[in-house]
Amino acid sequence: LIERKNRKDNSSFLGCSKYPKCRYSESVE
């Protein structure tokens, strides 16, 4: 998933705001 890709690329996290799950994954990490 895109959120997982963002996890590897912190730069991509900029667009993470669009994915609520991505933020949740960040907390889990």
TrEMBL record:
Protein name: DNA topoisomerase type IA zn finger domain-containing protein
Record-annotated DNA topoisomerase type IA zn finger domain positions: 2-28
Record Gene3D superfamilies: Bacterial Topoisomerase I, domain 1
GO biological process, one term: DNA topological change
Example of a GO MF term: DNA binding
Any Pfam family matching the protein: Zn_ribbon_Top1
Record GO cellular component, one term: chromosome
